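Predict structure. Chain length: 62.
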Amino acid sequence: LATRGAALAGLGLQLFLWLLYFSSNRWAFEQPHEIVPLAILALVPAGRVWGLDARMRRAWPF
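Prediction complete.
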């Protein structure tokens, strides 16, 4: 939940930059390498099934 929220906040910041690019008639997709990981993190839960979080959840009794 926190990862998705942080990714959405990051996407919001990128949207702000895109609006600045758009207002100055620059190409809005100059930095897609920042958008793709944030979009994936916003859509997919981070590590709950295959990642480190799943291993720690199984090993940690609390």
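Summary: The longest helix spans residues 2-23.
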